[in-house]
Design goal:
The longest helix is centred in the middle third of the chain and has 25 residues, at 57-81. With 182 residues, the chain is mainly alpha-helical. Helix content is 65%, strand content 0%. It has a domain at 96-170. It is built from 7 helices and no strands.
Length: 182
């Protein structure tokens, strides 16, 4: 069973590294990877939300911290697992990483954690933030930075962190509009 999963992991990685590559698509995937570095894009989204939505400012700021905090948790897991990044000799990675550790993907962990947390603050944002998170996640094996299983594990860890993150209120809660309306 594990051997079959390993072969599937390799096959999907090879597929993503060898199909659909063009200069514009690679540039977009690299840009998404940079946006996901240190959860920067997610922190910016949370801070912008806090600056626009005064009533839920604290919730937005708590959500903004989710992605960066998730990277810290992710790093602890990476050190424990110590799986090295994939290497396809004829298709080297298209980006750089601060460590050789691969499992789980920090981009996936922080992106799904932040998207989950931000979606808890503003449920109307869920489609957009989860679409951004999914694009960042797909970009990791596309760029040759992670095995697909690294991304899936990171997404699962991120979802758990985003759901458990304190200070966001009830998941999906609808709050009264400013001014105390109905």
């Amino acid at each position: 069973m594990l051997a079959a999963l390993g072969r599937a992991d390799q096959s999907v990685l090879r597929f993503l590294r060898t199909r659909g590559h063009s200069d514009p698509v690679e540039a977009a995937m690299k840009a998404l990877g940079r946006a996901g570095e240190f959860a920067a894009a997610w922190a910016v989204i949370g801070v912008v939300g806090a600056s626009i939505d005064e009533r839920r400012r604290e919730r937005w700021l708590a959500a903004a911290a989710t992605g960066p905090a998730a990277i810290g948790v992710n790093f602890l897991v990476k050190v424990l697992v110590a799986r090295e990044r994939p290497l396809i000799e004829e298709h080297p990675p298209l980006a750089r990483a601060p460590t050789k550790l691969s499992f789980p993907s920090a981009h996936a962990t922080s992106s799904v954690a932040a998207a989950t947390a931000l979606g808890r603050v503003e449920r109307r944002a869920r489609p957009a933030v989860f679409l951004l998170a999914a694009a960042i996640c797909v970009g990791r094996p596309y760029l040759g930075m992670h095995y697909p299983s690294d991304v899936l594990a990171g997404a699962a860890l991120g979802a758990a962190l985003g759901h458990a993150w304190p200070g966001l209120g009830r998941d999906g809660a609808v709050t009264a509009p400013a001014g105390g309306g109905p």
